[in-house]
Amino acid sequence: MGRGAATTYPRNLEHTDCFVVMGSNMAECHPVAFRWPVKAKLNGAKLIHVDPRFTRTSALADLHVPIRAGSDITFLGGLINYIINSRRWHTDPFFKEYVVNYTNAATVINDDFKDTEDLDGVFSGLVQFTEPQFWAYNGFLGRYDNASWQYKRGPKAPGAATKDLITRRAGPPFDDFVRSLKPGPAEKDTTLQNPRCAFQLLKKHFSRYTPEMVENVCGSPREKFVKVAELLLENSGRERTSAFAYAVAWTQHTYGVQMISCCALLQLLLGNFGRPGGGIMALRGHAAIQGSTDVPTLYHSIHGYMNAPSALRPHDTLRDYMAVEATPTGYWGNFPKFMVSYLKSMYGDAATPENDFGYEWHPKILGDHSHMAMFAAMAEGKVKGAVIVGQNPATSLNGGATRRALRQLDWLVVKDNWLTETATHWYLAPELKRGEVKDEIHTEVFFFPTTQIAEYDGSFTNTQRMLQWHSFAAKAPGDCRTDSWFYHNLAKRLKKAYAGSTLPRDQGWTKLTWDFDPDSGEQPLYPGEISARKVLREINGYMTADPKQHLPGFAALKDDGSTTCASWIYSGCFPAWDQNLTARREPDPPGVPGAHLKWGWAWPANRRVMYNRASADLRGNPWSERKRWVWWDATFVNPPDPKTGIAPPHGKWVGYDVPDFGATKAPDAKPKPDGIGLDALSGTDAFIMKGDGRGWLYVPTGLVDGPFPTHYEPHESPVHNPLYKQQTSPVHKVWSPGKAWNTLAAVADPKFPHVITTYRLTEHYLAGAMSRWLPWLAELQPELFIEIGKALAEEKGIRNTDWVIISTPRARVRAKALVTDRIGVLQVAGKRIHHVGMPWHWGWAGLSIGDVVNDLTAWVGDPNVSIHEGKAFVCNVEKA
Fold first, then answer.
1. Residues 6 or more apart from 526 whose CB is under 8 A from it?
2. N or C: which end of the chain has fewer CB within 10 A?
3. Which of 518, 548, 552 is nearest to 533 (CA)?
4. How many CA atoms are closer than 13 Å to the CA of 73, on its beta-carbon side?
5. What are the backbone angles phi and psi of residue 654, rounded to the nearest 5°?
6. pLDDT score of 129 more than 80
C-alpha cells in the first residue's frame, strides 16, 4: 500500500458493515478500540472472529471460525479464490472499476517470472545457502533474486538523462537525478485477459486454495469458511464496506508479513481501502509501538521508513543511496528532500552540499542487527555489552538461550521500573537454581530505576498513527529518571569523550548536533532533563536559518539544506511553538460526520483514513452517499500562489478527512511526461506512495519472500505441507542452527504432537513488568495456566487445575491445566491435531510468579522483519 501502518482508525470501524478479526483477540487485548466494531454490530454489522480459541471476542461475534495457528494464508487465499470466481464479483461493475483503476491488476509481468504453481512451492530466482557462517550472521536459509518478478516495460523516454551522467553532477537540487531513475512504461491489459497480467497470475496462484483445501489445511469447517466469504461479498461494494483487524498473532510467524500482505490483497479485490468502515486496522501491542517504528528503535530503518544506509548494499555515497532507495514516481520522488532534511537534523551546520550533507558520517548497518540475531551473536561471545531499556528479554524469545546469551556479556545495563528477570537473571534464573549452570558469571550488571509514563511530559503514537501529548501527573520518587534523561546525558558524555578526536570514524560524534537542554524559560522536571518540546520541534522540522520558524508540513521540505527535519512523516504536528497539535482534545460535534481531526494529530498530514482518494470513483464522485468520505469539488475557487500570484484552476479535493492526494489535482489530470513525484501520476492514481500509483495485488519489489502470499508450514509443524512440496518458506531465518540452545523439532515429530500458540490476558501487560508487581492485577490473574481441550485432557488423564508439564525441544515448563471447550481438536491433513494455548506474562520476579512460557519458543523468524515465530510451534503436554 505504501506506508507501514493501519489504514484506518478504531472509531471509523463504527461505519463498517462487516468486521473480521484474525490474528487478534481484540475484545481482551484492545478493549477500548473494540467498542467501535461493537457499536457497528448494534447498527447491523456482522462480526466474524477467525481464531484457534473461542474467546471474549468470539462471544460477541456473529460467527466464530476455528483455525489451526499458522494456516491463515490458506484461509485468506481461499477467500481470494472464492471471491474472484463468484458471480457477485464478476457481475457488480464496482469491483472491476476499482480493481482495474486502483490496483496493478492490469500490469503485465516479465516473461521470465515463474510462480509457485510452476515450481511446486517456490518462485523463480531462488538461491539457497549452505554455509553455516552466513546462517549464524543473518539467519537466512536462502534468498530470492527478484529480477524476474518485475513489470514488463517498454523503453525509457527518448532523450532521458542516464543515471550515470546525473550521478557525476554535484550538488542539489536532485530533481534531474531522480528523473534519471524513471523506468520505461509498464505494459498493461485493462481487459485483464493477458495471461501474464497480475490478475491472471493471481488467479492461477490461488486456484488450488479451494474450500476443501482450506478445511484440510486449516481445520476450519467448510461451511463456516464459505459463510465468511459470502458475508464479505455481501458487505463490500458501492454501498457497503468491510474491514479487518489483526495483531501479533499475524506478525509472529516465519511468514507474518505475507499474512498481512494477503489480507491487503483481499481488501483491494473487494474495493475496501480508503473508504469509511473499510481497510485494515493494525492493532499495536501498546501505546507507543507505532511510534517506535515511525521514529524507529529498529536497526534497519531511520526516521519515516527510510532504509538505514547499509555496508552490504550500493550505499557508498549519498547519490548511490538515493539511486537505490528513491522511487522517481509517486510521493517517494521527494525522497531527497526527506533525507537531506534528516541529515541536517543529525549534523546541523556541518552538513553541506560539498560533503553530501554529512552522509559519510552516518552509521551503516552490516547485516541483521535485530533482537534474535544480536542474541545469537551474544550467545557465542561476540557482543561485549548491552543496554536493556523497557524490555525484559530474560523472559522473551527462547528464554533459556537468551539468558545464556546474557551470561556471556562483560557488562549489562538494565533500566526499568522494577528489578525484572533481566536485572536478576544472574542470580535468580531457574537454570541457576537447578544447578544447570556451574560456571561463574562475570557480567557486571548496572540497574537504573526509571519513571512511569505519568511522571514526565512527552508524546506517544498509538495504533491509529495518532500522536498525543501527555503531561506529568506526579514526580517520580528517589533516583528514578526518564529514558530521555538517560539518553540525553549519555549523548552529552559521549560528545565530550569524542570532542578531541580527529579520526574519520569518530566524525559522526564530533559533528553531531545535540541541543535539547531546556531554554532559560523552561523548568525541567528533573535535574538534567531534556526539553520534550525541543525534541518535538526537531522531529517536526524548522527552517535551518531560523529554528523558531517551524515547518507547516512535509510539503515544505527542501533538498538544498534550507530545511531541518528529523522525521518527515511527523512534520506538521508542531507548526509553531505555541501550536502543539498533538495536545489537542477537541471532539467533533455529535451527529456531524467527520474524522475527528482536532483530537491529537495523526500522520501523515493529520489524515485519519489513508488512501482516501479511493473513496471516490474515477470522476471524483463518492461511490455512494452512504459511503461518502472524500470527493472532488469542481467549483472550489483556489487562492493564488503567494509566490507567482497565479491562481490554479478551480477545483479541490474536500470531505470529512484530509485528502490523501494532490489537493488540486483533478480526477482527469494526466501524468506529465517528464514529471517526477506526484506529477508523474494521474488523477486516478489513488495510492500515491507507490511508483505506479496503484495498490499492489502483485508485489514486484519490497518483500524478500515472494510477490504473492503462499502457504508454508510453520518451522515446527505436526504435518507435511498439504499444498506444496516445499514445506517451509525457503528464505525464512534460523539463528544458531544446530546449537543445543536452539534445538528444533522435525516435521511431524511424534514426541511433540500438539500445536501450541501463546497469547495475552487483559489483566497482565507484556512480560508482566508493569502488572505482576501490582497486587490488584496479580490477584485477578494469579498464576500461569495452559488451556487444553477436553479431548486431550481425557487422553492424558488431566483434570481441571491439575499441574501439567509442557515441553518442546528447548525447554519444559510447569503450569495449571484449564480444561475447556474453548480450544480443542482440529482435523488437519488427515490427522487429529490437538491445539493448546498459553499466556506468556510470567517469570520469577514480582508478586505473581510462574515459569517462563517463552522458554518453549525457538529462534526462527520472518525474513522481511526478523520477528519470531511465537504463535505456531509444537509441544507435548503431560500430567505433572
1. 456, 475, 476, 481, 482, 485
2. C
3. 518
4. 26
5. -135, 175
6. no
**Cis previous bond, 707, omega within 30:** no
Q: Tell me how crowded residue 463 is: count the other CB atoms within 10 A of its CB.
A: 22
Nearest to 469 by CA among 291, 660, 281, 283: 291
pLDDT tier for residue 371 given thresholds of 50, 70 and 90: very high
Identify the pLDDT of residue 162: 53
Give the residue among 819, 817, 808 at the shortest CA–CA distance from 872.
808
Is 767 in contact with 848 (CB distance < 8 Å)?
no
Note whether 26 and 16 are within 8 A (CB). no
317-321, 540-544, 647-651, 794-798: least confident range: 647-651
Q: What is the residue-wise DSSP string for 472-506? A: -SSPPPTT-B-HHHHHHHHHHHHHHHHTT---GGG
Cβ-Cβ contacts under 8 Å for 159 (sequence gap 6 or more) = none
Strands 280-282 and 242-246: parallel
Dig out the grid coordinates for 584 from the structure: 489537542
3-state secondary structure of 579: strand
Name residue 38's amino acid: V
Q: 790-828: b or e for each residue (b if 16 or more CB lie within 10 Å)? A: eebbeebebeeeeebebebbbbebebebbbbebbbbbeb
- C-alpha cell at position 7: 489504514
Torsion of CA 746, 749, 752, 755, to 10 degrees: 80
Least reliable range by pLDDT among 109-113, 427-431, 621-625, 708-712: 427-431
- Residue 167's identity, in one-letter code, is T
Which residue bears the cell 515459569? 851
Helix axes 256-269, 93-102, angle to 10 degrees: 130
Q: Cα–chain-centroid distance for residue 270?
A: 22
Q: Provide the grid cell at 704.
A: 524478500
Looking at this protein, which amino acid is placed at residue 186? A
pLDDT per residue over 285-310, tens digit each? 777 889 989 999 889 999 999 999 99
Asked if residue 173 has a cis previous peptide bond (ω within 30° of 0), the answer is yes
Structure-block grid coordinates of residue 685: 492514481
pLDDT in tens, 495-549: 999 999 999 999 999 999 999 999 988 889 999 999 999 999 999 999 999 999 9
Q: Which three cell numbers stand for residue 736?
A: 544458531
Can you read off the three cell numbers belonging to residue 74?
490458506
Q: What does the pLDDT look like over 566-604, one tens digit per residue?
A: 999 999 999 999 999 999 999 888 877 888 999 999 999
C-alpha cell at 309: 544506509
Q: What is the pLDDT averaged over residues 79-92?
A: 98
Rounded Cα distance between 425 and 396, Å, is 12
Residue 556 has pLDDT above 50, yes or no: yes
Q: Are strands 126-128 and 142-144 parallel, antiparallel or unpaired?
A: antiparallel
Q: CA gyration radius for the chain?
A: 27
Give the span between the Cα atoms of 603 and 606, in whole angstroms. 5
C-alpha–C-alpha distance, residues 397 and 865, integer Å = 15
CA–CA separation, 362 vs 10, rounded Å? 38
DSSP-assigned letters across all residues of 122-146? --TTEEE---HHHHHHH-BSEEE-G
Q: What is the pTM of this model?
A: 0.96
Question: Would the CA dihedral through 531, 532, 537, 539 be positive or negative?
Answer: positive
CB 17 within 8 A of CB 47: no
The pLDDT of residue 132 is above 70: no
Q: pLDDT, tens digit, for every residue of 178-213?
A: 999 999 999 999 999 999 999 999 999 999 999 999
Pairing relation of β-strands 825-828 and 831-839? antiparallel
The arrangement of strands across the sheet holding 242-246 comes to 63-65, 46-50, 18-22, 242-246, 280-282
